[in-house]
Structures are given as structure tokens and as C-alpha cells.
Amino acid sequence: MEKFRTISQIKTKKSRAGYQLAFTLIFFYFALFRYWLIPSNDDYIWRGKIGNYLLHHWFYGPDAIYGGNSNGRFLGNLLEIFTMHHLAAAIIVFAGFWTLLIWGIWRLSGKNWGALVAASLFIFTLQAGFLNNILVWNAGFINYVPPIALMLAYLVIVQQGTCQHLPAYWGGVTFLIGFCGGLFLETLTITQIILGLMILGYQKGKIQFFHKAYLMGALGSLLLMMTNPSYWHSTQYRQTTFNLGKIWTIYADHNHFWLLTNNLPLLIVVCLAILLLIYRCNYSPKVKLILSFTTVLFLIYYLAINVYLKSRPLTYIYTYTKVANSIKVSDSLVSILFIIFIGIIIFLFFRSEPFLWLYYLLTGIAFGPLMFVLSPTHCRGIFPCYVFMYLIAIRFVQAAVAQAPVRKVVSGIFALCVLIGAGNYQYKMFTNYQANLQRVQQQSFLNGTKSLRQHVPYRKFVWANDMLNQQDPHYWQQVLKRKQIK
After folding, report:
1. What are the distances in angstroms from CA 166 to CA 110, 157, 178, 196, 211?
2. pLDDT of residue 233
């Protein structure tokens, strides 16, 4: 018995060391990724005079001058300013929070090698809008990745707390997570509070101090955020509506595309996993036929609509400009039906898994406030919803291939996709970085008389598809000086 225990301990240590090595490599991957990243637009605004003014005026200034830069995203604003002045800090923050996000997905998905492969695949499944607005843009990353990464970290602690009673000091940890996580993005500040209340309601007689501490931290962040005067004055930049017609227009014209339709890789994987679940389940042939038929219809529809949308022009914020209203309305309705269908699948196959229900509800909770936002409208706000959808997709795939002969094959295919995606993205970032260093040496650009005249090779990997007027000559003068490029 002692011999077997020793063997088990050795295997556990090797496995732990393997995971530590994997996450170290992930951290350094993102560190290199951030080194190649080309800042754009808001990055220079926060780095310059506007950022300096806001830093010394509680992040509030006249609407006509500062617009949406006046807000209560205190931690996000501070990190944006700090990382744009210190590259080393930018690399650590970028790599740290992306690694934390992937770690959170891994922990919540089973803490095994298959879950690690699936979690590592996350950034390579991002639709173009998320990639361009969050992954390759410092300002987008700063406000959208840290808060959702911190929320996943709290869910990991909650998951751990269901197995054992956690010491009181974990209350301090969750308080900080809740407080810090609420100072980046308004919708997630609200979502945190709802999450805290939901966890307390579910735990009932098993409430621990860390549950209460998280909610207190979340409430504290909301109170601090709301001290910013920008939320108490009307502004042209930030507008809300409670008009049902306008709410439907926002959903039909913008939000539903980013929530579902544009996430084709995820939709394909989810539908295929559902088909496997149906094939292996014990429901009656009639129920299996109905479910299979419905799933195939959704799969065919989303493949077809994406072929159609491929030919439609997009704005720099990934909004379609020439899609018929009838298509928008029908696609909106299909999206609603698909959301309901996913709920039905969870009920039929995973009804006793509270965390899966939690991800499903959190997708709606994070999405809900965006329905009332008349302006600004952009795809970035949907990113947290995608994270929860991705967790649902992983669970579907895990259940579909469990004990199946194809399990190792599926893991192998996903691992190969990670390697190909990682090499592809890093190559494009490096190529863009080198091309950018060459073009910013134009004297007409450096002296401010003209904007840049040529794009980088991979425009999607620079915010706003590398709009040429979004680069700042003063910043690149300093970069070139440091590199001693003449």
C-alpha cells in the first residue's frame, strides 16, 4: 500500500510540475505578444496630456473635450496610463491577466490536460471583433480582460469552497477581487454584485466569510465608481434608453451578431458536441430525432449566414453596414431561439451541474445591461459573455467525448490547433512590428505634417484595422530614439 501511495505522489508531483511549466510558457508567450503589440488611438490619448489631466482631476473633465474618457474605471485608467509609460509593466500586466484568464478557464473546466488544451485554444477562437478590439489593443485589453479574469478567479475559489471550509484570510482575497474587479468596466461592476448575491442565495446554510467579503468588495467598487461625476451628467458619448423599439434595434443591428452569429468556430463545436450527446443519450428515438434535427438546422443556418455576412462590409468597430433589415431581424430571432435551445440542452443533460447553469445565467446577466446602451455600441462589451459561453462549450465537448474512442483524437486535434494558432499569431505580430518600425521613420510622419501612408501587412492585428491616422508621432519618436534607429 505504501508503495502505491509513493507512486501516486510521484505522479502528482510530475503532473503539478507539468502544469507549472505549461503556464510559465503561456505567460512568456503573452509577454512576447505584448512586446510586438502596436498601440493605437486611446493608448496615446491616455499616455499624453489628456490622460495626465484626467489623472489629476478624478478622471473627469468637460464632455466636449474628454467625452468617454471621463469615467469611473479607476483601475483600468490607471493601468492604461502606467502601461503606456512603462513597457516592462505593460508586458507583465498583459501576460499576467491573460494567463490568469486561461488558468481560470482551466481550473473551472476540470484541471486536466484536456481542459488545459481547450483553455489555451481560447484566444485562437476569438471572432475578428474581439481579436481586433481586445487581444491586439492595449486600451481594449486593459478594461475587458482583467475584470473577467478576476471574476473567474473568484469562481475558482467558490468551487474550492464547496469542497472544504476556507480559512478567514480568503475573505481578504475575495474582497480585493471584488473591489478591484469592479473598477474596470461598468457592466461587470453590476454583474459582480448579481454574482455575489446569486452565490449567497445558492449556498444558503453553507455561506462562508469569503462569500460575503466578495459581495462587500463588489458593492464597494460600485460606490467608488459612482463617485465619478460623469455618470451624473448627460453626455453625448454615453447614452441609455428604455424605449423597447430602440432596445430591439440595438439588439438586431449590433449586439446579437457579436453575441452569437460571428462566433462561428464556437457555434460549430457546440452543435457537433450536442449531436454527440444526443447520439449517446438514453432518450426515446423520437426525442433524439427532434433534438438532432433542431441542432442540424442551427448548424446549417449559422454556416449559411456566415457565408452571406462574409461579403458584407464592416466598420472598424465590426458593425455591418449593408445587411438588409429582414436579415437582421430573422437572425436576431434565430439567436434568441438558439439561446433557449442551449438552456434546454443544459436541462436535459446537465441539470444537476450548478456551475453550468451559472455560466448560462452569467452570459445573460453580463449581456443584459448592454441592451439599454444606446451609445457607444461596440463589440467589446460582449467579450465577457463569450468567456462564459466558452466555458459552456468546453463542458459540452467534455461530456460528448467522455469515454469515447475519439477522446484522445479530439484532444490531439485541439492541441495541434493551439500550436498552429500560436505560431501564426506570433508571426503576424512580429511581422507587423517590424513593418511598423520601418514606416514610422518617415520624416513627414515624425514631424506631424502627414499621417502614415502605408499599412502593416496584417491590419486585423492592429486596432481599427490599422487606420493610418491613429498613430502618434511623438510616441514613436521616443521609441526610435531608444532603439537608436536613424
Report:
1. 20, 9, 17, 17, 10
2. 83
